[in-house]
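CO-FOLDING WORKSHEET

Operator: S.A.
Ligand of interest: adenosine-5'-triphosphate
Run index: 229
Mode: holo prediction, single chain
Checklist:
[x] sequence pasted
[x] SMILES validated
[ ] output reviewed
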Amino acid sequence: MSLRKPPPPRLLLDQVSCMRNAQQILRNVNVSIHDGSALVLSGSNGSGKTTFLRMLAGFSRPSAGRILWNGHDITESGVFHQYKLQLNWLSLKDAIKENFTIIDNVQWFELLEGKHGKSMPAIELMGLGRLAKEKAKMLSMGQRKRLQLARLLAIDRPIWLLDEPSVALDDDGVKLLEYIIAEHRRKGGIVIVATHIPIDIEDSMILRLPPRFPRRITLVDMLDRCDIS
Ligand SMILES: Nc1ncnc2c1ncn2[C@@H]1O[C@H](COP(=O)(O)OP(=O)(O)OP(=O)(O)O)[C@@H](O)[C@H]1O
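OUTPUT RECEIVED:
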């Protein structure tokens, strides 16, 4: 019998609640996330998936509870400085420079990381090798998503926060996405993904957020709805 203690979670959400626009979006969420694991956030439009990711990225604070990274509260400034360097954020806003080439769009981020040499292999893996010297403005939506994923690989940070990563990808693109997620986890990385479209992520934890209810009707709403003619 082994008496070795299990490792503490890399990320721990402890009774986390979150408000947005004066509405309660998340209530008392508890999740332990270990190296190599994946958390999938699902739920209808407006249920709070992006809000959840934004909170993990430190763009907003929990209204109650704590998010701990290596046992430290990420809202403490000394901790946040280190924590944010662990994050790789992919969102629908793609931050692609239209007049830069595809390779420059990736290398620019890699350079900011003080890294070198991963951009071209990442671009090739994502199937954009032949387009590397083209301007980004000529890319299709799916190719832009592939470019974002290449950037994710080139930057190579341990915690991936992915907001609808499969949107606009074709079947092969989704398979590549599933592959790079599996590889990242195999190396001990963490993946937290908000998605409507089913993605094949082995042994993932699933957090289904309940649908939002419309907020209470105010006097202004009622006046707006009055048909005064
Ligand atoms: N910029 C904002 N300011 C205030 N409230 C917002 C803002 N963006 C979203 N919300 C509100 O927060 C709630 C959760 O939105 P969120 O974007 O997190 O949902 P989601 O599950 O990611 O939705 P979708 O599936 O449509 O992407 C919604 O009720 C929405 O109206």
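REVIEW:
The helical segments are 49-56, 77-83, 102-112, 119-125, 141-155, 171-186, 219-225.
The chain has a mean pLDDT of 91.
[x] output reviewed
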